[in-house]
Amino acid sequence: MLFDNWQGLLRVILVGTAAYAILIVILRISGKRTLAKLNAFDLVVTVALGSTLATVLLTEDVAFLEGVLSFVLLALLQFLVAWSARRSRMVARFAKSDPRILLADGRMLNQALHDERVSRDEVKAAVRGAGIGDIADVAAVVLETDGSLSVIAQERAGARTAWPQERNS
Q1: What is the mean pLDDT of the chain?
Q2: Which terminal CB of the chain, N or C, has fewer other CB atoms within 10 Å?
Q3: What is the pTM assigned to this prediction?
Q4: How many CA atoms lie within 13 A of 37 on its CB side?
Q5: For 11-40, what is each residue's pLDDT tens digit?
Q6: What is the pLDDT of residues 108-125, one digit of tens each?
Q7: Which of 47, 166, 157, 169 is nearest to 98 (CA)?
Q8: H-helix or E-strand containing 110?
Q9: CB-based contacts of 15-20 (< 8 A; 24+ apart in sequence)
Q10: CATH class of the 100-156 domain in this structure
């Protein structure tokens, strides 16, 4: 269907503009962390905010204020998880993953690859993506808390003070 009625279009324009403005205000108040995608909980909030905005825009069954309450609730829950994780080791362990070295000094760490369910080909792709043609030239490939792979060339490894602590690798 290309067009239903003018009322539907007007609703999307009005509700969309208002919901967008309120979402921006909520994000400014809640801080950059709300959209940081630093860990799984942050990613969930980002996806949920987008999904909520789409639902408010396109579903007449969801009242505008219900959508606004959803935005506030998601931002508040994300804040509470982050705040609690800073104050409790148990919450931090539950809410956040640790970075993990998957390749060290040109050598794949098979147990780490297995534990993190990352293939050797994915590590090689990250190495190629970093512009490095030989794994022997890599000091480390780190699986970061957000799921991305960081590649550190041997020539840039320095004193390795930024490296995560290795676990049974």
Answers
A1: 88
A2: N
A3: 0.67
A4: 9
A5: 889 999 999 999 889 888 887 767 776 677
A6: 999 999 999 999 999 999
A7: 166
A8: helix 110-116
A9: 15/56, 15/57, 15/64, 16/57, 18/64, 19/53, 19/56, 19/57, 19/64, 19/67, 19/68, 19/71, 20/53
A10: alpha beta
